[in-house]
Design a protein that fits this description.
This protein is an alpha+beta fold. The protein is 36% helix and 27% strand. The strands form 3 sheets. Strands 1, 2, 3, 4, 7, 10, 11, 12, 13 and 14 form a 10-stranded mixed β-sheet that branches. A two-stranded antiparallel sheet has the order 5-6. Strands 8-9 form a two-stranded antiparallel ribbon. Helix 1 (20-35) runs parallel beside helix 6 (222-231). It has 3 domains: 9-71 and 216-235, Pseudouridine synthase (2-Layer Sandwich), CATH 3.30.2350.10; 75-211, Pseudouridine synthase; 236-281.
């Protein structure tokens, strides 16, 4: 039985061309209708770009308090990279703005650069087309207006990066497996790899295959989750409130008992000190 107000965690295989916020919005809308309640807490743990698919964690109710914890989990991606071309967004959201030679690049060079420059702790400048805040505003809003955006580099960790497929020398394409920390922009990683190889690069595909212990094969489709929110047995808003209230009462009683025990311990300690003082005099 689902209890969205008390809190649920959904692991979703986010479809392409949908924002993470749109997933949250659809789920919140279904819950509002089903529970006949406007105030439903729903949030996601780690944004996925519209042109990326894969693991998206969505929390409801009190489980939204775990978002930061869930975001901190190590993430794994499969990234499709095209060498020799760049775009302003570092992926296919924007058109190619420059081309570069790539014929000099070999698989051996790629693997050497990945091992020496993109493994372990690295510095990365997030994309201008990202949710990073600049002067209190998301950078992508400024970038889409044609304004220059200056973002400070961030320290992150690449635990593993390997070439899964290589189109070289016939085609300037790579398929990479990346295991990394929170805050890594794979688009920016593609940009930096292209530069390190003496060329340019951008993403033409991205799939988040794992977050923490959850793999994409274990996730539900968004349609399946929305169907569950419509048909699966669910604790009513009124019953959920009663459960929350009872838990708060129990927690309050436990806190009061703990405070009483601490106070009694202090009193016993003071009494013992006084007795020892009286004995000594």
């Amino acid at each position: 039985m689902l209890n969205p107000i008390e809190g649920e965690i959904f692991y979703i295989d986010k479809p392409l061309e949908m924002t993470s916020f749109a997933v949250v919005k659809q789920m919140r809308g279904r819950l509002r209708t089903r529970l006949d309640r406007k105030n439903i807490h729903v949030g996601h743990a780690g944004t996925l770009d519209p042109l990326a698919s894969g693991v998206l964690i969505v929390c409801t109710g009190r489980m939204t308090k775990r978002i930061e914890e869930l975001q901190a989990g190590v993430k794994e991606y499969t990234a499709w990279v095209r060498l020799g071309e760049t775009t302003p967004s570092y992926d296919m959201e924007t058109e190619v703005d420059a081309t570069y030679p790539w014929e000099h690049i070999t698989r051996e060079q790629v693997e050497k650069v990945l091992k020496e420059q993109f493994t372990g702790s690295i510095q990365q400048v997030p994309p201008a087309f990202s949710a990073c805040k600049v002067d209190g505003k998301p950078a992508y809003k400024l970038a889409r207006k044609g304004r220059e955006v200056e973002i400070r580099p961030k320290t992150l960790v690449i635990d593993e990066i390997e070439v899964m497929e290589c189109g070289l020398p016939a085609e300037p394409t790579l398929v990479l497996r990346v295991v990394c920390s929170k805050g890594t922009y794979i688009r920016a990683l593609a940009r930096d790899i292209g530069e390190a190889l003496g060329s340019g690069a951008h993403l033409y595909g991205l799939r988040r295959t794992q977050v923490g212990d959850m793999r994409v094969e274990q996730c539900e489709t968004l349609d399946a989750v929305l169907q569950r929110l419509e048909t699966e047995e669910m604790v009513s808003a009124e019953e959920a409130e009663k459960i929350l209230l009872e838990r708060e009462r129990i927690a309050n009683r436990e806190r009061a008992a703990k405070l009483n025990a601490q106070r009694l311990a202090r009193q016993m300690k003071q009494l013992k000190k006084q007795q020892e003082k009286n004995t000594n005099t």
